[in-house]
Specification:
Order of helices and strands: HHHEEHHHHHHHHHHHHHHHHHHHHHH
Shape: globular
Distance between the termini: 60 Å
Number of helices: 25
Radius of gyration: 23 Å
Length: about 525
């Protein structure tokens, strides 16, 4: 089978752009992703019909079995989704979710407090973005439903406390990955005096998008700044329509489950707490085993750098499921009801799994077409140095939007940013690296093919494209603020000047949003 390189061709952009635009305009995610995959396969195999069929077959098999071994990342992550669906369904069947909603009705005073509590939980659970979106969604959904918060708003709360928190937290799967990348880059350029962790911490205030995305989320939750499509979704929620029922049940949702009247709040919080603690244990343990195998000393950051995230999530979810089963059995629930909860819970995750499988497939196609490299090559032209932080922010955003992956964008764009900084002003290396991190999170937030965005929709039980379209205006506002900040940073070479500029623009944006939100 013949394959071609498209690293220097704009054709590499067509498959992801086709999938994204079709998904937005048709709102049929699987069809759109499938057509994008098909177009990419045709390009890769030099328009060979037989070769296209063989290539697609290899991609499907590779989702589960790759290079003669189990594709553990995909299999364990899918297993985690299914088990988490079972846990959520059992919590519903036991009546624990209903009990929590009743408790919240007495203790959480209003809709605003429900949103603020959801945001708080999202900021606290910062181990991993997948974990954040799904677990916090399971806990917060009964609460936000009680106060008629739309599922789209819940998905926005989850998504904007997932990647933005993880990208500035050193003790997370994201932080460890970024520290490892930056450490290799600094070593390659002769910066051996600075500790890699301290460099990561220095870059936190330079990540304008992550900082102001969280601040905007706080203002939206506190002030009710509903603009664009989000406003209509919130108005519908006040009428009891938490999601668009004309599109059917969203991923992760089910109306087939009965609820017991004997549920206790403990039935919700104990399984989730055990799930969190068990996952943290497996994250650190698997990382420690990898460190020991390489003869390296143990450290928490090192363990998170070497950990197996998907395996840890799956093992943690099994412990959480076992705890949930013990609780519902001790509650005396009918075994047929429990079995039905397990089946319905697993089935409820199938729509999300289908979307993920297609997203992973198109990610493989995009990777083979080297779309990311083509985007990165655009950054190496004759651009004034003062504009480079802003240009890197935009290119990283477009790359992450097109490929659906922040981590892949980090791997491609961070080395390029470092080389460009070393070629002119080495003292601007960290701001330029931070601009790449910020841009990648922005692109990830906007992309319909991003797995983080998909799982935020799943955690909120929200239709995926509804989440993408309602979150987009907020992401674009913060991106524009960040872009101006990086332009100021580039010309002044002052992070403080960039932050102040972003702060002023942020305040002006809030006044404008409040005015828009108050219009009839």
């Amino acid at each position: 089978m013949t394959t071609l390189s498209y690293a220097d061709s704009a054709l590499s952009l067509l498959p992801p752009l086709l999938a994204i635009l079709l998904a937005i305009f048709t709102r049929r995610v699987l069809l759109s992703l499938g057509l994008g995959i098909l177009l990419g396969a045709i390009f890769i195999t030099d328009y060979s019909l037989l070769g296209t069929g063989q290539y697609l077959g290899q991609q499907v098999v590779g989702l589960v079995w790759d290079d003669g071994a189990l594709n553990s990342w995909n299999v364990y992550l899918l297993g985690f989704l299914i088990v988490l669906g079972m846990i959520t369904a059992l919590i519903t069947v036991s009546g624990a979710a209903k009990a929590f909603a009743d408790w919240a009705r007495q203790h959480i005073r209003n809709k605003r407090d429900a949103k603020l509590l959801t945001m708080f939980l999202g900021c606290v659970v910062f181990i991993d973005d997948y974990f954040n979106s799904l677990v916090v969604g399971s806990v917060a959904r009964p609460l936000t439903d009680r106060y008629y918060v739309s599922r789209s708003k819940l998905a926005y709360l989850l998504d904007s406390t997932a990647a933005p928190i993880c990208v500035i937290s050193p003790v997370s799967s994201w932080g460890a990955y970024i520290i490892a990348l930056i450490g290799g880059i600094l070593t390659a350029h002769g910066f051996t005096d600075s500790g890699h962790l301290s460099v990561f911490v220095q870059m936190i205030p330079m990540n304008f998008y992550a900082i102001f995305a969280l601040l905007l989320l706080l203002c939206v939750a506190f002030m009710g700044l509903d603009v664009g499509p989000m406003r209509q979704h919130e108005m519908n929620a006040q009428k009891g329509n938490l999601y668009d029922e004309s599109k059917g049940l969203p991923p992760g949702a089910s109306h087939e489950l009965p609820e017991a009247d004997s549920g206790k709040i403990l039935g919700l919080f104990l399984p989730i707490s055990v799930l969190v603690l068990a996952t943290v244990y497996f994250l650190i343990n698997s990382g420690a085993e990898s460190l020991a195998a390489e003869g390296l000393p143990f450290s928490v950051i090192g363990a998170f750098e070497k950990t197996d995230v998907a395996l840890s999530l799956f093992y943690g979810s099994l412990v959480g499921l076992a705890t949930t089963l013990v609780l519902v059995l001790s509650q005396g629930l009918d075994k047929a009801m429990i079995f039905k909860g397990l089946i319905v819970g697993a089935k409820s995750m199938l729509p999300a799994i289908y979307i993920l499988l297609f997203a992973w497939t198109i990610a493989g196609v995009i990777g083979q077409m080297e779309t990311g490299k083509y985007m990165a090559n655009l950054a190496t032209g004759s651009i004034p140095f003062a504009l480079l932080p802003a240009v890197l922010f935009v290119l990283a955003g477009i790359t992450a939007f097109s490929t659906g992956t922040s981590w892949g964008t980090f791997g491609i764009m961070l080395p390029i940013a470092a080389d460009m900084a070393m070629g002119s002003h080495s003292n601007m290396m960290l701001p330029m690296l931070a601009a790449v991190l910020a841009g990648a999170v922005f692109g990830d937030h906007c992309s319909p093919i991003s797995d983080t965005t998909i799982l935020s929709s799943t955690g909120a039980n929200c239709h995926h494209i509804d989440h993408v379209l309602t979150q987009l205006p907020y992401a674009l506002i913060v991106a524009f603020i960040s872009l101006v900040g990086y332009i100021v940073l580039g010309f002044t070479e002052s992070v403080t000047a960039g932050l102040i500029t972003c702060g002023v623009m942020f305040v002006l944006s809030i006044f404008i949003l409040r005015y828009k939100a108050n219009q009839p």
